[in-house]
Write a structure and sequence with these properties.
Helix content is 35%, strand content 22%. By secondary structure, the chain is an alpha/beta fold. The chain has one domain: NAD(P)-binding Rossmann-like Domain (Rossmann fold, 3-Layer(aba) Sandwich), CATH 3.40.50.720.
């Protein structure tokens, strides 16, 4: 499968690319500093661009079978539209070029997962420090839900750098449940599974231990 990976965090992008290639996918990445990529001779196609620059998305999206979008916004207490605006640009490009499958990574604390991420996150981090970011995440998810794309919204619990377990819980019913954490590598594994699986199509599963 031809897959476009859009991930603003380098660590996340690297893991997505490595695992996707290990599974046999042909990977393209959208990177702001793609012009310098010849120094590291990537084993995948790299295109210069930014989700906030709609014109740069066309060459990256064209010819793809699916898009994995994992945007990491900067922490801020000020109003932000980064996630909504970038995702809106991406959706328009996908619709224009006939790319149907979108796997978008959001976070625990959005939509109906709000209040299910543990005391520290629910009572301190989200309301006091990331309120504006999560409002932008909610708008991003609402935007995706309103499209005709084949979408899955993945909501990982708190990401860690620990070794992957290969086993985790995937939940769509969060009643009486609090998420804990998930290794980045396990979150990436689940994300890439959604490229070919329809089990969670048009849903927003939460992934946690």
């Amino acid at each position: 499968m031809k897959v476009l990976v859009i991930a603003t965090a380098k660590r996340v992008r690297r893991q997505l690319v490595e695992q996707a290639q290990a599974e046999g996918h042909q990977v393209t990445t959208l990177e702001k500093k793609a012009a310098r990529s010849w120094f590291r001779k990537p084993k995948h196609r790299v295109i210069a661009g930014d989700v906030l620059e709609e014109r740069s998305l066309g060459p990256a999206v064209q010819g793809q079978d699916a898009v994995v979008c994992w945007l990491t916004p900067a922490a801020t207490r000020k109003p932000t539209t980064y996630l909504w605006e970038g995702t809106a640009n991406l959706i328009r490009a996908m619709e224009r070029h006939g790319v149907r499958r979108l796997i978008c990574i959001s976070a625990c604390g959005t939509g109906e997962s709000r209040g299910h991420c543990g005391f520290f996150h629910d009572k301190i981090i989200q309301p006091l420090f990331l309120k504006q970011v999560y409002e932008d995440r909610d708008r991003q998810e609402e935007l995706i839900r309103g499209t005709q794309l084949e979408w899955v919204i993945v909501r990982p619990a708190r990401l860690t750098s620990q070794r992957p377990r290969g086993k985790y819980m995937v939940l769509t019913d969060l009643r009486n449940f609090k998420a804990s954490r998930i290794a980045l590598l396990d979150a990436v594994e689940f994300t890439l599974k959604q490229l070919s699986s329809n089990f969670y199509l048009f849903q927003a599963p939460l992934v946690t231990y």
